[in-house]
Specification:
Order of helices and strands: HHEEEEHHHHHHHHHHHH
Strand content: under 5%
CATH class: Mainly Alpha
Strand order of the largest sheet: 1-2
CATH architecture: Orthogonal Bundle
Radius of gyration: 20 Å
Number of helices: 14
Structural class: mainly alpha
Shape: globular
Number of domains: 1
Oligomer: single chain
CATH superfamily: Ammonium transporter AmtB like domains
Number of strands: 4
Distance between the termini: 55 Å
CATH topology: Ammonium transporter fold
């Protein structure tokens, strides 16, 4: 067997567990924001992604995303079943630990989208959608940006831990979902209030904790870059919470618990693509900007009339876009040999590359998501009936109640 570093491998395995924890944390974060009659169905969206995407990843997802490249666009099928991965190395870590780490990213990404259509999508349609979306959107985009030979990686794309691969693609796909599926009944005349913000704040806190694995683990080694990413992650989250609350306090005259939770997540999203490439001070600027920017992006749904139930587009889509572009502004090669200098270091080209990556991955995600939804709607239907929506998805889709 090839020689690997036990410390790096141990750090990556711990990071994998931290990223796994983010999926049930997302379930709590989203679950608290819906009405009590839909809490279980919302939790199910996140938790169901765990078994479904795990199976997909083992059978062919990992091979498509990280297998030997076919023209820089997709991996071949030589790693199907993961048998060939055993006993090999990925840099200083075992290939299986790298596969496990990336699997946790693949799991949470489609779960993020569910925030856009909470309280109105059929569960059967959701299962088909996340399986197809992961195969046709996530796996190819992950290959373009992260895999050896990926065409966007060769172009110079910087995405340390998933600003474009995870958050931008999921956020823009979420916008397509809420537009295609349509608004909840009586929206926006009646705005559904969160039934348990205690649950949402708990989920937000666990997301903050798990995000250290998400970003610092992406260094794939327990060294200087992981340390930088760890600090940038924490500082970005703090900046996001601060920026959101400052704007909200001025706009609404009161700071809210939901606001600080949304702001810290916005900061985490925005720092994700930059975490291993920027200084702590730059991370603070990115986080504060993201909190303010995403607050404004969330307000757009009231101005334009679309029903992004839990702000998946406003926080993840726009936060991912802001972070990806600001990576092209603040990145410094001195922090990471695998990176590049950004605009402030004199490299104007990098900002252009980041903009191109956002345009390409965003457009691809939007088009494929739209086609998938139309096909699913034509064959099995996307939305529950009005009667089921009024009664609540917990009883009509799952035959259970969250609070009996």
């Amino acid at each position: 067997m090839p020689k690997t570093d036990s410390g790096d491998t141990a750090w990556l395995l711990v990071s994998s567990a931290l990223v796994l924890l983010m999926t049930p944390a997302l379930a709590l974060f989203y679950g608290g924001m819906v009405r009590r009659k839909n809490v279980l169905s919302t939790l199910m969206h996140s938790l169901t992604a765990l078994p479904i995407i795990t199976i997909q990843w083992v059978l062919f997802g990992y091979s498509l995303a990280f297998g030997p490249t076919i023209g820089g666009f997709i991996g071949d099928l030589s790693l199907v079943g993961l048998g060939p991965v055993i006993g090999t190395a990925h840099g200083s870590v075992t290939s299986l630990s790298f596969c496990a780490f990336q699997m946790m990213f693949a799991i949470i990404t489609p779960a993020l989208i569910s925030g856009a259509f909470a309280e109105r999508m059929k569960f059967s349609a959701y299962v088909v959608f996340i399986l197809a979306w992961s195969t046709l959107v996530y796996d190819p985009v992950a290959h373009w940006v992260w895999a050896d030979g990926g065409w966007l990686l060769k172009m110079g794309a910087l995405d340390f831990a998933g600003g474009t691969v995870v958050h931008l693609t999921a956020g823009l796909s979420a916008l397509v979902c809420c537009l295609v599926i349509g608004k909840r009944l009586k929206y926006p005349q009646e705005r559904a209030l969160p039934h348990d913000l205690t649950m949402t704040l708990t989920g937000a806190g666990i997301l903050w904790f798990g995000w250290f694995g998400f970003n610092a683990g992406s260094a794939l080694a327990a060294g200087q870059v992981a340390s930088l990413a760890f600090m940038a992650t924490h500082i970005g989250a703090a900046g996001g919470a601060f920026g959101w609350v400052v704007v909200e306090w001025r706009h609404r005259k009161k700071p809210t618990a939901l606001g600080i939770a949304s702001g810290l997540v916005a900061g985490l999203v925005a720092i994700t693509p930059a975490a291993g490439y920027v200084s702590p001070l730059s991370a603070l600027v990115i986080g504060i900007f993201a909190g303010m920017f995403c607050y404004g992006a969330v307000l757009c749904k009231y101005r334009f009339g679309y029903d992004d139930s839990l702000d998946a587009f406003g926080v993840h889509g726009m936060g991912g876009l802001a972070g990806a572009l600001l990576t092209g502004v603040f990145a410094r090669k001195i922090y990471n040999d695998g990176g590049a200098d950004g605009l402030l270091a004199g490299n104007v080209k990098q900002l252009g590359i980041q903009a191109l990556v956002c345009a390409v991955t965003g457009t691809y995600a939007v088009v494929v998501t739209f086609v998938l939804l139309k096909v699913i709607n034509a064959t099995m239907g996307l939305r529950v009936t009005e009667t089921d929506e009024r009664e609540g998805l917990d009883t009509t889709q799952h035959g259970e109640e969250g609070y009996a």
